[in-house]
Amino acid sequence: MRLNLNVNGRAMTADDVWEGESLLYVLRERLGLPGSKNACEQGECGSCTVYLDRVPVCACLVAAGQAQDREVGTVEGLADEEELAPVQRAFVDEGAVQCGFCTPGLLVAADDLINRVPEPSDAEIREALAGNLCRCTGYEKIMAAVRTAAERNAGTGISGSTGGDRE
Amino acid sequence: MDFLRPACWSEALEAKANHPDATPVAGGTDVMVELNFDHRRPETLLDLTRIEQLREWSRTERAGVASVRIGAGVPYSRLIDELGTSLPGLAMAARTVGSPQIRNRGTLGGNLASASPAGDGHPPLLASNAEIELESVRGSRTIPIEEFFTGVKRSAMASDELVAAVHVPVSTGPQQFSKIGTRNAMVIAVCTFAVALWPERSGVGTGLGSAAPTPRSAPEAEEFLAAALTEADQWDDPRPLPDSITERFGELVAQAAAPIDDVRGTAGYRTHALHVLARRTLSWAWDEYRGGTEFSGRQRCA
């Protein structure tokens, strides 16, 4: 089937999509957007987290056809042409990346959090990231990065870049 | 494979009538896992995410009881955000489902249609005597949740039916839910327990999950506790519960279970855990009842 959807603010079309494949497969294999990672394929690890109509979801659990005419935001859409998004900048600054496989999903989940909750508590950060697994290391630097991103985000008064054309 | 994308409810019912083997998919948290792992290759997928009315909830009255009618497609995240006060037990259970990503997609309708013995939404629905509204092109019927589950992942739904909504009575007293798992997120329950106090009718509701081939309530535990509370005039004049009562309640809940050994836990562990969960959740609920004046069911006398 043919699939029309909006990804990171751009209208996109994928052809010959198999009806049983996931949005994750479409993004990675048909639309050239390999930022969202494919690991567990059962919603367990969060490394494929994307925005679907501005809500974070596991792309591996969205049937491709369910994304027809929907708005998808991936990690590739977080930064603008010039600058990294606050969460990306903070992950770099805090050294919150090791192998990097879980990072795209964590970035989308963290981006959603800091745009919903201006001053998240540690408990709120942990809860927001409960669906994202990192197998390299502990979560301390990731926690630090999200705290930093939230502080900077609150400081600028500008909501960070998010999926699609979210304002 | 066919992918059917009905735009409205009547189209969905027609599609299900014409393709009784079609697999309905909403949040995809069960169906997509089976597809991704090649465990199932349904000939037809029936996408329900475009049907706006499934994503709505409303306040209703059923046989004089204030209720909430929850469309089958309302995700867990909205049960938490929007219905936490009216349906606290269900909201507590919803908070334990998966992760934020899963709660943004997973629905109560999908939980019911999958009819897993481990479904987190089922115990609070049992404790509230919820009713399930099923619909097909032949018409609509509403059945008590006690009659909905017929076996492991089997329900009373006919092949042409879809879950339209769930009717849940608004809480009139404290409700609690507790779940055992290896961590605080992303776990399939080792076992779960829900309890609800219904002071206005001197009633007690219970629900057990991952404890038997189907989710089930513990009627003997409910009757015992309700009678004990009435006998001691505890509904109108709540005092600390004697240990003999919480202990017996826990025993009766554990006796209602028929668990198995599996990868998540042994039958023996589950039985023990249910006993503990029942005692604990009852204590929490009772503390809340003793401390609370906000419940409309029974006004405290001066």
UniProtKB/TrEMBL annotation, chain A:
Record's protein name: Carbon-monoxide dehydrogenase small subunit
Keyword set, alphabetical order: 2Fe-2S, Iron, Iron-sulfur, Metal-binding, Oxidoreductase
Keyword hit for Transferase: no
PANTHER family noted in UniProt: OXIDOREDUCTASE WITH IRON-SULFUR SUBUNIT, XANTHINE DEHYDROGENASE IRON-SULFUR-BINDING SUBUNIT XDHC-RELATED
PROSITE patterns found in the cross-reference section: 2FE2S_FER_1, 2FE2S_FER_2
A molecular function GO annotation: 2 iron, 2 sulfur cluster binding
Organism: Actinopolyspora mzabensis
Domain of life: Bacteria
TrEMBL record, chain B:
Gene Ontology molecular function, alphabetical: FAD binding; oxidoreductase activity
SUPFAM superfamilies in alphabetical order: CO dehydrogenase flavoprotein C-terminal domain-like (SSF55447), FAD-binding/transporter-associated domain-like (SSF56176)
Organism placement in taxonomy: Bacteria, Bacillati, Actinomycetota, Actinomycetes, Actinopolysporales
Disordered: region residues: 103-122
Keywords: FAD, Flavoprotein, Oxidoreductase
Source organism of the structure: Actinopolyspora mzabensis
Protein name: CO or xanthine dehydrogenase, FAD-binding subunit
Keyword Oxidoreductase attached: yes
Gene3D superfamilies assigned to the protein according to its UniProt record, in alphabetical order: 3.30.465.10, CO dehydrogenase flavoprotein, C-terminal domain, Uridine Diphospho-n-acetylenolpyruvylglucosamine Reductase, domain 2
Domain of life: Bacteria
Domain (FAD-binding PCMH-type): residue spans on this chain: 1-173
